[in-house]
Amino acid sequence: MGPGPSDVSPQVLAAQARPTIGHLDPLFVGMMDELKQLLQYAFQTNNAMTIAVSAPGSAGMETCFVNLVEPGDTVIVCRNGVFGERMRQNVERCGGKAVCVDNAWGEPVCPTRVEQALKQHPEARFLAFVHAETSTGALSDAKTLCALARQYHCLSIVDAVTSLGGVELRVDDWGIDAIYSGSQKCLSCVPGLSPVSFSERAVAVIKQRNSPVQSWFLDQSLVMGYWSGQGKRSYHHTAPVNSLYALHEALRLLAAEGLQQAWQRHKDMHQLLAKGLQQLGLDFVVAEPYRLPQLNTVYIPNGVDDAALRSRLLNLYNLEIGAGLGELAGKAWRFGLMGYGARRENVSICLQALSEQLQQG
Ligand code: PLP
Q1: Are 302 and 319 in a shared domain?
Q2: Domain boundary at 200, 228, 256, which?
Q3: Count of Cβ atoms closer than 10 Å to residue 325 Cβ
Q4: Which CATH number do you get for residue 46?
Q5: Atom of ligand 1 nearest to the CA of 183
Q6: Which protein residue's CA is at the shortest distance from atom 2 of ligand 1?
Q7: Shared domain check, 197 and 334
């Protein structure tokens, strides 16, 4: 019950253990076509450029920035935790100019401030923000932010590493242009893959670049030769065959449950956990309307030894909870309820273990 990797279901682990076949084998190519459709479902998009990057969420982040941002481009970057700041670093490494819109840790991104920045910077080409800030547990209003991006003629770049599969997310309806996620959070797959999706507008920007994408590996125009359908695949890199089996199975399970049902399950488990945490006297870092169901951050009570308590949970109950990150290091705990981990028995074990161990300080 940490901030990821989350629990992986036995079915996904079994899928990963199937025999490795060639990554251009017709059977594997067929599986990749299905995987693409399953990803389109998870993202709620018809975007043709929807694939899984063969590397973790950070590579999905880089894929979006290196393909879209060219030297001299202005990007409005929203920072309300660790991962917004990483977006800024990506922009600058691409030679872009980052205009930062800051919110305090624990707060969502403020659309009013974003609009002010968009008004002040008519030259901005992109708006980048984190939908679900894993460092704090705050959910931002992606629908409103993406509508603002469109209104001010910007493309939106959205971090959905922690949101995909855990809370409502609609790429096409909300007009998201570039989005990346991770396999290891609410999809409950093994770590090491990053689903990404680009709208037609984003693909047009990539096609019209003045300079080549500086990363050969992440250049989408090359990668698409491998992922595009109709069996005409050309070698780009050796795909992580077994991890892709696992992702296929994880997404199949998500589709079998249904996205709305999965979102609801995360909400229900969060409500159970939140009630129990509050009964134990723990206070949430994030105000109720903006709390992520899949990532519950509470302040550590005075007098409790953070590391000692977490290690007792791990050693005595086999239970992992997350430490605070960045500004919240040593001040907060993060309880993940992600994917297969968002289950009633996990909530009960966690609350029981905490109640026993908090008494010891
Ligand atoms: N963005 C967010 C919001 C994250 O939570 C994470 C990882 O926790 C990342 C990006 C980076 O993903 P990864 O650790 O898979 O590279």
Answers
A1: yes
A2: 256
A3: 19
A4: 3.40.640.10
A5: 15
A6: 161
A7: no
The number of domains in the chain is: 2
Instruction: List C-alpha distances in Å: 17 to 77, 241, 249, 294.
Output: 40, 10, 12, 27
Distance 58 CA to ligand 1 centre (A): 6
Asked whether residue 157 is domain-assigned, the answer is yes
> Residue whose CA is closest, atom 5 of ligand 1?
134
pLDDT at 64: 98
Shared-domain flag, residues 179 and 317 = no
Q: Look at residue 209 and tell me if it is in a domain.
A: yes
For 76, the 3-state DSSP assignment is strand
Determine if the pTM surpasses 0.90: yes
DSSP string, 21-34: --TTSHHHHHHHHH
Total residues found in the chain within this entry: 361
Tell me how far the alpha carbon of residue 303 lies from the centroid of ligand 1, in angstroms.
31
DSSP 124-181: EEEEEEESEETTTTEEP-HHHHHHHHHHTT-EEEEE-TTTTTTS---TTTTT--EEE-
Amino acid at 29: V
Over residues 294-344, the pLDDT tens digits come to 999 999 999 999 999 999 999 999 999 999 999 999 999 999 999 999 999
Domain that holds residue 15: 10-256
- Residues 177-189 have pLDDT tens digits of 999 999 999 999 9
